[in-house]
């Protein structure tokens, strides 16, 4: 299922998509010592934001990877990036070895022939503790 993410190592910040439909996604990610966003044993703010954005992108990016019959397309390349942080609160950092869970919901989407823009509400948890919350805008486009 990670094939619905427009990211690859070393920038892949989602281990598994647990649940996904057209408006909601839930993922998990274990923080490893060799992650590029780990500093002094902590997964820093930029990593938490990237992890949340990748979780969010999977909902919209899936439309580029799957056809109208829900069959996987061949040879698809998608690029995605954060176009705006509408709101963001980081309550705590997590440590190497921690596994975080992300939940994201689609707030709005704008689709053209060339790209998709979307606004997503996202939350990140360590166990039951809220680590990150906010709304982000994403730009996602298939590259030829």
TrEMBL record:
Its domain of life reads Bacteria
Q: Name one Pfam family in it.
A: ApeP-like
The record's annotation in InterPro entries points to:
ApeP-like_dehydratase, FabA_FabZ, HotDog_dom_sf
Q: Which UniProt keywords apply?
A: Lyase
Organism the protein comes from: Flavobacterium jumunjinense
The yes or no answer to whether the keyword Zinc-finger is present is no
Its recorded name reads: ABC transporter permease
């Amino acid at each position: 299922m990670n094939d619905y993410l427009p990211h690859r190592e070393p920038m892949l910040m989602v281990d598994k998509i647990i649940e996904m439909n057209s408006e909601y996604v839930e993922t998990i990610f274990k923080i490893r010592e060799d992650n590029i966003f780990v500093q002094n044993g902590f997964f820093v703010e930029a990593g938490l934001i990237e992890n949340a954005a990748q979780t969010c992108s999977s909902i919209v990016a899936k439309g580029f990877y799957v056809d109208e019959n829900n069959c996987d397309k061949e040879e698809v390349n998608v690029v995605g990036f954060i176009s705006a942080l509408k709101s963001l609160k980081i309550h705590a950092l997590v440590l190497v070895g921690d596994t975080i869970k992300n939940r994201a919901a689609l707030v709005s989407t704008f689709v053209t022939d060339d790209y998709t823009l979307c606004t997503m509400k996202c939350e990140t948890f360590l166990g039951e503790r809220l680590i990150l919350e906010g709304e982000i805008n994403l730009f996602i486009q298939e590259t030829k």
